[in-house]
Amino acid sequence: MLNIVIFGPPGAGKGTQSQNLIDTYHLAHISTGDVFRAHIKNETDLGKKVKELLANGVLVPDSITISMLEEEVKKNPEAKGFIFDGFPRTVPQAEALDAFLTKIGTAISVVVALDVDQDELKRRIAERKKIENRADDAEDKLLKRIDEYFTKTVHVLPYYKNQGKLHSINGIGKVEDIFASIAKAVNTVK
Ligand code: AMP
């Protein structure tokens, strides 16, 4: 199995590059943010529990997130591998993911971190705002999520660096050039 974790703050191009990875390697894509949003939309019990947290851009507790992630993996028994997008965001989540993958006879193959600094992200948001005419409220939440990434999620990177699996990729430039760097990293473990 080929299992990839993709990291990056909001606006780093994770969505675009995840799609490129799906098209190239035919993996199942699990975006925990998307799964939570689907639960909220469908008004499930889980959706009701996490609605406020997502609205405020704060992290959902690990226990809830980990069991949801395991359910999503189990829904895809035929998958050739997974792209984990938006998960793990804490070290306990990373440890739980390793333990779970070991249990089902697989492991994380490679970790890709899209590197885009905060000034560039703010520039991209300002640009997007001009085009999409987003409300200030939406902008505040986006800034909060960027802050979550740089204060919390980045602490997961050393966990994978210690395992020798982390590839930091410059996320500024042409989409196809960035993907070429990602594919090179992935191909080292294929
Ligand atoms: P995203 O679309 O990945 O930015 O996720 C949107 C929101 O979902 C986040 O701001 C969190 O509230 C929640 N979320 C997504 N993934 C996780 C995770 N791994 N741990 C905790 N909360 C998460």
* CATH architecture annotation name: 3-Layer(aba) Sandwich
Summed over residues and divided by their number, the pLDDT gives a mean of 93
- Please provide the ordered H/E string of secondary-structure elements: EHEHHHEHEHHHEH
Can you tell me the overall shape? Answer: globular
Largest sheet, described in full?
A: 5 strands, parallel
Per the CATH scheme, the topology name is Rossmann fold
Radius of gyration: 16 Å
Q: Give the ligands present.
A: adenosine monophosphate
By CATH, the superfamily comes out as: P-loop containing nucleotide triphosphate hydrolases
How many runs of DSSP E, i.e. beta strands? 5
Give your account of this protein's structure.
This protein is of the alpha/beta class and 190 residues long. The chain has a single domain (2-183), classed as P-loop containing nucleotide triphosphate hydrolases (Rossmann fold). 57% of the residues lie in helices and 14% in strands. The chain is built from 9 helices and 5 strands; from the N terminus they run βαβαααβαβαααβα. The chain is globular and about 45 Å long. The model has no long low-confidence stretch (mean pLDDT 93). The structure holds adenosine monophosphate.
Keywords:
190 residues; alpha/beta; 5-stranded parallel sheet; globular; binds adenosine monophosphate
Summarize the structure.
The chain is of the alpha/beta class and about 190 residues long. It has 9 helices and 5 strands; from the N terminus they run βαβαααβαβαααβα.
